[in-house]
Amino acid sequence: MRASETVRREGLLQRATLVLNRSWQPVHVTTVRRALCMVFRESARIVCPESLQTFSFEGWVEVPIQDENAAIRSPRVAIAAPEIVLLAHYNRVPRHEAPFTRRNLFLRDNHTCQYCGRRAPTDRMSVDHVQPRSRGGSTSWENCVLACVRCNARKANHTPKEAGLRLLREPTRPRWSPYLNLRSAQHMESWSRFTPQSRRKADQFRAQ
Prior knowledge:
Helix content is 25%, strand content 18%. It is of the alpha+beta class. It has two domains: 3-95 and 178-207, no CATH class; 102-163, DNA Binding (I), subunit A (Orthogonal Bundle), CATH 1.10.30.50.
């Protein structure tokens, strides 16, 4: 196998795959490699994004590959990288709190300054305490936001009101979701059916 093909395949195997519980609720995001292992061990089935039909490993191998760029090939088989898998037995929904980390704060605020709305590279953004720490402000989801260098310098050791700034939205603790640690660019379009507002439509589609 050519080196370029090996690199492509390894990258594809690390791509994100959505994991649904037995009730078709999102519970996790894993890699294509791990998803295929679960399907091979029969602890999950692959979901066809278009029809929502589910397949075993052997059945998925027989499905025609629609996108050659998403095909994983070996000397013996070619298989489309799964975008969604359905667990065979697990039917719970994890109840975790989103940990307060710098990475998760960037994800919550979508790499956007919460004062002026400007998006900037990570090294041009900072974590701002809405109520300054020197005045009793805590380091928490409810008191921290992203701010660009210019807005952070303007705010300095003041409250937003004192600095003549206004928050785009009040900072809140985000709800846990299986997508928490993913950038929006890593989300697959097919996952949109399984967001809370779309699950009812997906249920109707499967019932047809």
